[in-house]
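Hi again,

Forgot to attach this to my earlier email, sorry! This is the prediction with copper (II) ion bound. I've pasted everything inline since the attachment limit keeps bouncing my files.
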Amino acid sequence: MEASTLRNTFIFSLLSIFSISSSTTTSHSHHHHPLDPLTPQEFTLVQTIITNSYHNSNPNNLTFQYVGLDEPNKPTLLSWLSTLKTTTPPPRRAFVITRLNKQTHEITVDLSTSSIISDHIYSGHGYPLFTLEEQTTASELPMTYPPFLESVKKRGLNLSDVVCSTYSVGWYGEEKSARVLRILCFYTEGTVNLYVRPVEGVTLVVDLDEMKITQYSDRFTVPMAKAGGTEYRAAKQKPPFGPKLKGVATVQPDGSGIEIAGHTIRWANWAFHLGFDVRAGPIISLASIYDLEKKTFRRVMYRGYISEMFVPYMEPTEEWYYKTFFDVGEFGFGLSAVSLEPMKDCPAHAVFMDGYYAGQDGKPVKISNVFCIFEQNAGNVLWRHTETGILGEVIREVRPEVSLVVRMVSTVGNYDYIIDWEFKPTGSIKVGVGLTGILEVKGVSYTHTDQIKEDGHGTLVADNTIGVYHDHFLTFHLDLDVDGETNSFVKHKLETRRVANNISPRKSYWTVVSETVKTELDARIQLGLKQEELVMVNPKKKTKLGNPIGYRLFPGSTVTSLLLKEDYPQIRAAFTNYNVWVTPYNKSEKWAGGVFVDQSRGDDTLAVWTLRNRKIENKDIVLWYTMGFHHVPCQEDFPIMSTLSGGFELRPTNFFERNPVLKTKAPKIGHWPNCTAKP
Ligand SMILES: *[C@@H]1O[C@H](CO)[C@@H](O)[C@H](O)[C@H]1NC(C)=O
Ligand SMILES: *[C@@H]1O[C@H](CO)[C@@H](O)[C@H](O)[C@H]1NC(C)=O
Ligand SMILES: *[C@@H]1O[C@H](CO)[C@@H](O)[C@H](O)[C@H]1NC(C)=O
Ligand SMILES: *[C@@H]1O[C@H](CO)[C@@H](O)[C@H](O)[C@H]1NC(C)=O
Ligand SMILES: [Cu+2]
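Structure tokens for the complex follow:
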């Protein structure tokens, strides 16, 4: 009885959050949640509409650099949700960036009326994301470029074993710059680990509008790094193998707890929407948690995604200085996503979701298994206590932890990033970032550290191979809606107090001094300097006991950029000057490094937006958190690097009246036929 009533309440309140249709209907609106990513049919429609609108142009000149959902304005979406979908859904729109005749167009397409709402030529600084196709074409140009063939020959290399790759060039104060990419080449003879065998000394520049090589330099040669010891394919390894790992399986005796309807996912007490964007990768929306006591879903996060990344290398010479990558806005974190391999990238019981993006010609391209979603029992303890203080009895209560993970892997050239959004029944949202893949290395003449007399800008990780120092910064857009849109950002400062008047043998203690941050500039925080806790609260709501309802940011990393503020890459990446920023919600402030990031000049970054110093108290606000890794490579990172993990957690803080998993029962234990649990 009780369970079924609860379930009905659960479903009703879910309806109000997601507007899930409980009956089948033919109305257009029910095919999509307004936040669903564009479907293959919609990509095709966008392509047709835009191509037709340029019927006088050479179709070969039109390229689609970005196509994605132009999501409804937040107030529009929320008011539609509040009507339980009885009103017309917000119009479905696509945002498109094209290049046509050396110009960048920003286009908004209305999908329901099949019409172009606006088409502006962008005249500001910076260029759009690169397409895979133009990168591939550009990277093949050296193969027929005589000076390059000469350089290959001079080095005694076989051309058939040379492959090239494309690199964004950044901006270093140039007045004007064409849309170009740098090209570096690698040697694959005897190995597939090309990144550790650079053809050092040679760089090329390709103009993407002309699609031809416009600069070439061959400044020096160093011995080619050996192929031996660079192999990572299992089939090519020779014994001894090890260490030996035995299989570990997960059994789900009750079946899966995951329910997926379109892009809406329900699991345990969580409900959220999962979208795929070619630029951001996974986008989590409308994350809400069911409150057993209030018998309703309560919203925690309106939208969360990786807004930008910054990966600067610390080698200032001609061949390397420009390497300061913005993987989201230049290369597309979703575009770089790879199909996940069942049983390896994700556990056996994972379910998968495909992603779609528009290719350079605007036609849909599928990335199968772009996300995996799985329940995770990592052997952790949700909570426990052993009580021996009561005479004659021992009380032992343990609850194993099970959580839900949404995973995507993005392989941006040499590096692989594993992104996990983990939802815990406690109300925590934990984001995990794993770095693995292959180092970006510099070819050198050295084979021992004794030979290195000057700053090598990295670590000698193998003969003739320096793993160059660099950073990885990931900036997350976290539009928290803690129990509603209206939130405030509070710093709980932990301050030391001296015991006054000798009232105690103790001389000191700490206490909490709370400060509600009023404006944007005061919300900029470089973590690690002060002992404080950062909480997003709903100033309109309190617990029964009177505490403000909140969610706390548990930062996992307090790393910030060490580049000088006036250095060009840092001007472009000024969003990494602080770890934490808070801004008022503004639909157009999505990309921390700006909309047009390739060769950007830093005029459209989070750092610039906040200079308006807008009020953020008691408003719909967005939290931005930058986590980072300073990467000093080591020999274990060669020839391939084991996963280095970091992350952060958003954790309820006086959001619930008490521990929300107090009454959660331990899940059933799975049994293999041959296995008996020992008590
Ligand atoms: C566009 O196409 C014309 C031929 O129709 C060609 O001459 C021109 O170079 C092209 N422009 C670009 C930017 O590709
Ligand atoms: C070039 O290829 C030939 C034939 O495959 C091989 O014998 C030779 O070692 C290669 N040269 C280099 C420098 O890798
Ligand atoms: C939203 O942000 C953009 C970019 O910072 C700005 O141009 C615009 O004025 C903002 N809109 C409002 C209503 O503040
Ligand atoms: C399970 O037990 C059967 C019969 O005793 C045996 O043949 C089989 O090898 C066992 N399997 C495993 C995985 O231990
Ligand atoms: Cu690294």
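Residues 258-653 form a domain with the Beta-galactosidase; Chain A, domain 5 fold (CATH 2.70.98.20). The CA atoms of residues 40 and 364 lie 5 Å apart.

That should be everything now.

G.
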